[in-house]
Specification:
The structure is a homopentamer.
Chain A: E1 2-10, E2 14-15, E3 24-29, E4 40-44, E5 53-58, E6 75-80
Parallel strand pairs in A: 4-6
Antiparallel strand pairs in A: 1-3, 1-5, 3-4, 5-6
């Protein structure tokens, strides 16, 4: 998993029907965990707010144990970091 | 997932029989989400047009919930971004 | 998927028994789709020739719908591009 | 798998319920195995200590054979390297 | 898959019980197939020797068809290249 900061949300009205109701957030990995230009779109099912530092699961992990086994998702916010600022 | 711009399509007449009928599009990730030279070929099942900004699912996610579980696909357009220009 | 050019083949006499009969090709991704030094070895089940531009599926996609579900393969040539030169 | 050094732990109070009880560690890959800025968060189920060099499984491998098949995990510490210093 | 040279082995006494008996080798991808600093730890089930050029399967492919479906493995040596020197 990586730690990243939630920058904002993304709206997609025309999308795969299995994605209806999913909340898409733009996450920027912290500097120690990624090269430049590596923001991702992650589905949030924790209720993360803009500016919060979150734990993001990538790949098939994004669908496991999140009730999203049937959704075309490859990144999910699975936790909010308690002391996120210390990782930026 | 990443956001990218649809640049054009790709034609492959001789291909795996499970890919017959699939529409292949060239997608260029937006700058904040990828390093240089990282265009990909994604299967479109939303009806995205050239120039549109789209949400692309990568890896096994490209086959899940898209009725493509039996196709050799590792990238799929799963949504069209409402305000795509703001991400370029 | 990515588009690449077939550069040649690879011979491995001593290998996993599930790979017996597989044809291994060296594929170089086109410049717009990869950084430098990113050639891969892909299994060909289309009959691609050296110099041809092909569509390559990566990861688990390389085993799906190719009758290769039980083989340790992470890259497969799944199509030949009609107008490959235009992507180089 | 890659070899990395355990730098510390991460606390996430608000998280996916399937992650309750998981211990998250920050791991920095050794220089020969990664580019700069590629630290990851891995779940530890071996009991690795800070400063130890560990073997990390990535992707779906992080959930297999670790009794974590139902958890949204994409990186796991699966071994402690006997002579870790020799790889730094 | 990628081609790499076997540099040596790794010993991990304290490890996941599903990895007992696995032989871990350090593999350095050949220059045309990887950026700098991208050595990996791969499980060998072919009997590769130090200095040999091998075919490495990555991701879930490392567990398929290798009788390793239940092991937390993401890289495996699946073949020895006949004319490895030509790829270095």
């Amino acid at each position: 998993m990586i730690i990243g900061k939630v920058l904002g949300s993304v709206v997609s009205t025309r999308k795969n029907e299995n994605l209806v109701g999913s909340k898409f957030m733009i996450v920027e990995p912290v500097e120690s965990m990624a090269k430049e230009n590596s923001r991702i779109v992650a589905v949030d099912n924790i209720g993360a707010g803009i500016g919060e530092y979150v734990l993001v699961a990538l790949g098939s992990a994004a669908r496991i144990g999140c009730d999203k086994e049937t959704k075309p998702i490859d990144a999910a916010i699975v936790g909010i970091i308690d002391d996120g600022e210390s990782f930026k």
